[in-house]
Amino acid sequence: MTVPRALFILFLMVAIGVAIVVFRGESARAANRIQQLHAETIELEQRLWSAEIELARMREPRAIRQRAADMNLSIVPPEPIARPRQ
Amino acid sequence: MTRRDLRLREHLLIGLALLGLGALVGRLVYIKSFDGTRLAAKADRQQRADIPIKARRGLILDARGRIISATTLRTSVFADPQVLPDTQVAAETVARILDLDPAEIAPDLLAAGDRRFFVIKRGITEEQAEQIRDAGIYGLGTFSEPFRSYPMEELAAATIGFVSPDGTGISGIEHQCDHWLRGENGVKTIVRDARRKAFWLAEEGYRPARDGYHVVLTIDAEIQTAVENELAAGVARYNAESGVAVVIHPHTGAVLAMANYPGFDPNNYTDFGEERYRNRVITDPYEPGSTFKPFIAAAALAEKVVNMDEVFDCEHGSWTEGARTLKDHHPYDFLTFQEILIKSSNIGMGKLGLRLGNRNLYEYVRRCGFGEQTGIGLEGESEGLLRPLVRWNAFSTTSLPMGQEIGVTPIQLARSFCIFANGGRLITPYVIRAIVDAEGRVVQDMTPPEHDSEPVYPPDVLDQMRQILCSVVNDSPSRSAQLPSHQVFGKTGTAQIARKDGRGYEKKAYVSSFVAGVPAENPELVAFVAIRRPDASVGYYGGQVAAPVVREILRHTLAYLRIPGDIAPNADRATAMTEDYND
Fold first, then answer.
1. Closest Cα to residue B299, out of B427, B453, B424?
2. Which of B87, B112, B243, B460 falls 20 to 30 Å from B68 in CA-CA distance?
3. Would you state the pLDDT for residue B321?
4. Vertex B388, ends B384 and B389: CA angle to 5°?
């Protein structure tokens, strides 16, 4: 084993080690990003659920009547369907 | 230094380096072989955690997909009493942000003892949550938790029910369909850093949650709202104790509305007494009184013990048969069979009962579905009260035809009245239409299967009865159930309330009721209203108290469902629909 050869082997080992560390770092960053996306998904789901509840409140028949009354509007009833002339 | 010395030194250095590497490798091999498992487990415990992914509880939807019950997330604030640097400071900070009294919070925090997770307040706003996070007090934090919400508040509350604080259904459909609504929790494995903060979602440890299925009802929120509004108005108008109402589609049995008044708000169910939670439409039998008469009159026609034009002596309002004296609310002398129903003569019905006899009475009462559950599939349904035939006596023969000595629930009466609206079939009412998944695919169809059973009464009897019941509506003094374009057929009831000790009836205590179908030519709706203990000094007759409520319910529902009229609009009957629609 000559010194240059030993140095070369040492350099190789360090390079592999650095590559492993870099790869691990990238993996950790990717996994962390997945975790963040997961948390964002949960947050978006939370907002979706709240929006659903809000929509449900707006679709409630009493609420519709109240909003119409607040806007001084009347709910036009459907025309009564008369018996056809015979 | 000779070349030999240099080479020796070189070999020594390399040897030492190799020895060092060898020692390192040897140590690694030792750790891996002998201590690896223990250390890996320790690292796992420190770094990894299994976090449950809570499944979202399913929705409860009305017939048109409107949300009646849903789960949302709310933010709550918690503390870890063991790591709080200063309990008093934490309490004051939280109190200031949440606009509470610190004296309410500090003692609870101190009393929390060894607990690592103590909820200070549930359901705070996002702004408050932000302020708490910005306060930066170690041991104080916020978290999201699922929370059941009822955006339509009291709507059909007794039918829908409510959940416990941990999200388990404990009443009504929430309880009954809990296994459908609950879903299955998932789990995720996270890897934490040194600060215990999750930074890695372990791939192999992820199982998504399966959210709960949705329950679709036959109840329509628009119809239910109209029913609840009219019922509340009717109860208030006569200072009554309570009221119930139900609207059914007579051909399918789909329950379009089912109301109890007074009700409660399931968002704050603890603010109301437990008696409000009962769905009295299915749980509480009562003596139906005159609303029961059509079933006996039809039986008399079917058994041919009477014909339509036969005249009966109604004894001028008082008739003694054996040990029993029957009275009419108005004295009548001679009434035809039809008039017995139109005028609601107890004496006339008593005489019909004698002609039928106990055995026939019992058979027809059973064929009409009384004395058994309707099969509506809701928890807590009563069978009503019907004594076995062996326990009937001579009193029964004249009591039953006028709706006494029997207890029926509102759903039983409405369901049985559908016989007159659908060609004689005894339908099975139902409230739950289907269980669906998040994509709307049907997981379970809950519609009762159709069964071909013989009509309870022959077709000609049904036609005759419907004619008579139209006359009940058209020829009554107040005509309080008439509609301008739709012919209503129905029967009023003014039943006394039996004393709890079983000794007769309470004075001036009534259940005022009305059951009706519409349109008479091709019925699409059956509605029933019963109002309990109206103020007798204001009014108590069924035609006065309950019939107008049914009329308004039917008017709203017919317009909403666009059901065509079956009679020419009559100016005498017409009410101003525009004005009334905007009440």
1. B424
2. B243
3. 84
4. 130
CATH class of B53-72+139-217: alpha beta
CA distance A56 to chain B (A): 5
Distance from A2 to chain B by nearest Cα, in Å?
Answer: 9
Determine contact: A4 vs chain B, CB below 8 A: no
The two structure tokens encoding residue B383: 């069978």
β-pair partners for B188: B51, B206
Cis bond before residue B519 (omega within 30° of 0): yes
Model confidence over B464-484: pLDDT tens digits? 999 999 999 998 766 899 998
Which residue in A52, A55, A75 has the most chain B C-beta atoms within 10 A of its own C-beta, making it the best mutation to test that interface? A52
Span B61-86, pLDDT tens digits? 999 999 999 999 888 898 888 888 88
Residue B70 forms contact with A (CB below 8 Å): yes
B55, two tokens? 């499944």
Asked if residue B472 lies in contact with residue B491, where contact means CB atoms within 8 angstroms, the answer is yes
Chain B residues within 8 A of A50 when measuring between CB atoms: 72-73
- B202-209 long-range Cβ contacts below 8 angstroms, 24+ apart: B202/B48, B205/B48, B205/B50, B207/B53, B208/B53, B209/B53, B209/B54, B209/B55, B209/B56, B209/B183, B209/B184, B209/B185
A83 — contact with chain B (CB < 8 Å)? yes
Q: Given CB atoms, is B565 within the 8 Å cutoff of chain A?
A: yes
For A54, phi and psi rounded to 5 degrees? -65, -45
Confirm or reject CATH 3.40.50.300 for domain B221-267+279-581, answering yes or no.
no
Q: Kindly report the nearest CA distance between residue B483 and chain A, in angstroms.
A: 11
> Where are the domain boundaries for CATH 3.90.1310.10 in chain B?
53-72+139-217
The identity of residue A72, as a single letter, is N
